[in-house]
Backbone:
């Protein structure tokens, strides 16, 4: 007989070392006596020796991690019996959950999993202060299995920025915002006094309960009574259950009450006028909103006179536009100004804006490289653009580039295919390229040709304005 | 906590309890660092109230003042209920303080309509924004979206919330017009469509927009809609708007009843059957027609669950041999869940299953007896056994929501 001494609680390290040693010795399960702490060993100590790791299926490793936490004395013997079978020809043992041993281990793992889950759920911290004034959150909890250390990761991750302690009868955890310490068992009387929010929590608990749906059986199934003594809200349960039938009867018996004084007719009428009523209101709202494309610092709003002959809609502000907070002042804006002048359109009499109000870019060293907004992003800005144009009321809208067309119509169009007069959401419009397209062309003759075509478009726009006006 | 705030909490949590949803799962895995607080989980229920419902989130209204007059709602403008209103900072502080004590997974914020839908929605977005930006809150946030608000507010809400939801409340446009005069089916489905579009787009370019998706709630028993119609509505919602969940809420009598609604106990059993049927549609490969055909006049049976009802109508398909039957058919056996079926399929690759094995693979073998054949067991033909319905009927229990 080989006696294996193990530490009290969930001794995963001791068990792992023992399994390696036993596997190396090819020791069958019935030749091993497992001795969790405090129990005398009748068969003599196992020699301390190191052995190579044992290769086990991943699912079995997971099962072991859970089952060692179980409070059942036999847990190590059962696990080793399963490991022995897996190592001796039954590699797929865990797939056969109808096997009595596997079934038993799975049931134990399930119970541990449930206990872990309930500890995550039912730990209740109370705010206290250390002698040095540090704010500390302290909880008292009584787990069913040896799971205290296994839950530490969850609480550290969730409450990393707090100083906290969890006290239990089988050990304690302490976190100081940097280090986790596992301490000795604590007693119920070490638990702190209720804090200021416990009353509020109980108040909340009582009021989310609907007496017309009383079902204490379902409650007990999920929140067994053994947990109640450490749950501050549980003191309300008896009263709620007792009063529920009367409260529900009373609700159902209640006559339809005559409406009292409250009848906010004016407010109901005023409700219809929601949303920005002027361009200034809309602009304030856009400026205050989170960018809907990532990275942007501020919104660049449209500019120009109200009820202009024409409004030009571009893609999105660029680097320079965002820095200065004005549209069409960068390289593409300058080219646009030049073409506008050559076409004989007075820049001061047109309104300019963008389909997307924020600068989307990719940082490349110190530079911010323009990144085209994707269709989803353009559509997010569409409502703002529509509102803006409904306030500005231009006689003609010129969409410059595919993004502008998408923002104005909600549908993708190829600029080169629809170039020329086009209806935009029921308004008179004209489609042309974006001036930045001209800047991107590498070939000089092509660039000149494209510029001429763009200027010709603007001349056509001027003629349309003249015809309209 | 001061008394005034406690009073507000009492009124505004009482006012929020008729919303069934409390899920806190589905959010992307994340945890705050030392400058924030919180993490996401697979959904933890921190407490259960005596109605068997879980408490996972701080579910409150920003205010229960409301300009709308929806007959089924306790907060409608014509109700005499006591009113209160939280400030944005009060909700933020309450959420953080509850969270620090491990009472909750996060916040589920809803609101009555004050001033106008836009203003209300803006205030709700502000709560979420403050929690995320000023306090580094990494817990769960669910915002009840107001479909009458302007679309740009949904865009803003999606940047901060894990889940957005819009309640369709009543399954037909007629009922909605009758009971909720300020609402319209068009604005509800419009806003749902917008949310689906944004969620899809965000997924495509790996951005976050309401990453836990959207859900809705429909009230059962306030109008004459049949179960079949309800399930068809749900099927459309799941398909067209990619909803994560449709919650069915048995119409509950409210303390300030409206004259247009009948007063009666909430049809809890019917609600339970609808959830079971909903599950069959989503996870068990049943069609709406199959589920509906097992009931009568478009209503599900109340005495037995919809899967048993279907099995009894299709007795010729049973018993099934557990050692050979398809997964698809095993899923149709009353009493076998998805996990049991998967375990059976894994185990039978290695051994011929006997009745005792099934006892270890399924939750209860008694219910299964009439429907299964094992290596050592064969039932008398299902078709011959008329008393089977009574053995399948369970003591009525209410569904537990999560």
Residues:
């Amino acid at each position: 007989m080989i006696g294996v001494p193990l530490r009290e609680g969930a001794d995963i390290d001791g068990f792992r070392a023992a399994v390696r040693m036993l596997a190396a010795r090819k020791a069958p399960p019935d030749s091993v006596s497992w001795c969790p702490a405090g129990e005398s060993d009748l068969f003599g100590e196992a020699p301390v020796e190191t052995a190579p790791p044992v290769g086990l299926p991943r699912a079995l490793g997971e099962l072991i991690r859970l089952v060692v936490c179980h409070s059942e004395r036999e847990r190590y013997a059962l696990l080793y019996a399963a490991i022995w079978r897996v190592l001796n020809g039954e590699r797929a043992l865990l797939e056969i959950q109808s096997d009595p041993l596997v079934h038993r281990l799975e049931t134990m793992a399930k119970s541990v999993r449930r206990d872990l889950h309930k500890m995550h759920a039912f730990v209740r911290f109370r705010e206290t202060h250390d002698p040095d004034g540090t704010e500390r959150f302290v909880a008292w909890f009584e787990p069913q299995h040896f799971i205290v250390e296994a839950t530490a990761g969850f609480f550290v991750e969730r409450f990393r920025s707090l100083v906290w302690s969890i006290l239990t009868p089988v050990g304690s955890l302490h976190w100081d915002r940097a280090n986790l310490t596992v301490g000795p068992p604590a007693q119920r009387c070490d638990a702190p006094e209720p804090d200021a929010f416990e009353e509020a929590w109980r108040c909340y608990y009582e009021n989310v309960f609907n007496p017309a749906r009383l079902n204490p059986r379902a409650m007990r199934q999920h929140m067994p009574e053994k947990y109640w003594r450490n749950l501050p809200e549980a003191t309300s349960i008896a009263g709620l259950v007792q009063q529920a039938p009367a409260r529900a009867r009373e609700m159902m018996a209640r006559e339809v009450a005559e409406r009292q004084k409250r009848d906010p007719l004016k407010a109901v009428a005023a409700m219809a006028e929601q949303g920005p009523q002027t361009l200034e209101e809309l602009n304030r709202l856009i400026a205050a909103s989170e960018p809907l494309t990532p990275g942007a610092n501020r919104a660049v709003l449209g500019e120009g006179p109200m009820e202009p002959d024409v409004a030009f809609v571009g893609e999105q502000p660029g680097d320079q536009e965002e820095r200065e907070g004005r549209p069409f002042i960068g390289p593409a804006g300058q080219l646009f100004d030049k073409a506008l002048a050559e076409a004989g359109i007075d820049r001061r009499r047109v309104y300019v804006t963008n389909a997307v109000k924020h600068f989307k870019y990719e940082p490349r060293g110190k530079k911010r490289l323009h990144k085209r907004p994707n269709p989803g992003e353009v559509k997010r800005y569409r409502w703002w653009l529509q509102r803006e144009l409904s306030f500005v009321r231009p006689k003609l809208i010129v969409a410059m580039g595919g993004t502008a067309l998408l923002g104005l119509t909600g549908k993708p169009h190829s600029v080169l295919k629809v170039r020329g007069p086009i209806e935009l959401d029921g308004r008179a419009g004209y489609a042309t390229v974006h001036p930045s397209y001209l800047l991107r062309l590498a070939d000089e003759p092509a660039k000149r040709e494209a510029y001429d075509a763009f200027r010709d478009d603007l001349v056509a726009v001027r003629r349309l304005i003249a015809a309209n006006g | 906590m001061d008394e005034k705030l406690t009073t507000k909490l009492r009124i505004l949590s009482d006012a929020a309890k008729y919303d069934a949803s409390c899920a806190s799962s589905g959010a992307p895995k994340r945890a705050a660092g030392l400058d924030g607080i919180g993490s996401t989980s697979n959904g933890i229920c921190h407490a259960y109230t005596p109605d068997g419902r879980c408490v996972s989130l701080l579910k409150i209204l920003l205010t229960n003042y409301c300009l709308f007059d929806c007959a089924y709602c306790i907060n409608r403008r014509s109700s005499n209920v006591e009113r209160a209103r939280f400030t944005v900072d009060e909700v933020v502080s309450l959420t953080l303080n509850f969270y620090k004590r491990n009472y909750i997974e996060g916040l589920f914020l809803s609101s009555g309509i004050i001033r106008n839908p836009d203003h209300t929605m803006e205030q709700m977005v502000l709560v979420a924004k403050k929690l995320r930006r000023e306090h580094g809150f990494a817990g769960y946030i669910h915002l009840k979206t107001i479909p009458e608000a302007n679309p740009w507010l949904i865009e803003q809400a999606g940047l901060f919330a894990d889940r957005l939801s819009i309640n369709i409340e009543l399954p037909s446009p007629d009922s909605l017009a009758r009971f909720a005069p300020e609402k319209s089916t068009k604005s509800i489905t419009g806003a749902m469509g917008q949310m689906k579009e944004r969620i899809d787009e965000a997924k495509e370019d790996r951005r976050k927009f309401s990453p836990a998706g959207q859900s809705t709630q429909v009230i059962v028993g306030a109008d004459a809609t049949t179960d079949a119609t309800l399930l068809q509505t749900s099927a459309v919602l799941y398909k067209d708007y990619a909803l994560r969940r449709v919650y069915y809420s048995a119409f509950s009598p409210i303390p300030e009843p409206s004259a247009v609604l009948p007063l009666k106990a909430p049809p809890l059993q019917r609600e339970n059957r609808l959830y079971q049927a909903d599950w069959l549609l989503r996870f068990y490969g049943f069609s709406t027609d199959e589920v509906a055909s097992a009931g009568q006049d478009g209503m599900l049976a109340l005495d037995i669950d919809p899967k048993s009802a279907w099995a009894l109508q299709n007795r010729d398909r049973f018993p099934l041999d557990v050692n050979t039957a398809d997964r698809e058919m095993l899923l149709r056996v009353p009493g076998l869940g998805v996990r049991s079926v998967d375990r059976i399929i894994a185990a039978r690759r290695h051994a011929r299953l006997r009745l005792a094995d099934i006892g270890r693979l399924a939750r209860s073998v008694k219910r299964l007896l009439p429907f299964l054949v094992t290596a050592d067991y064969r039932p008398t033909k299902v078709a011959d056994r008329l008393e089977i319905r009574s053995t399948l009927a369970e003591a009525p229990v209410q569904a537990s929501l999560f």
Chain A has a mean pLDDT of 91. Residues 198-240 of chain A form one domain. The longest strand of chain A covers residues 135-140.
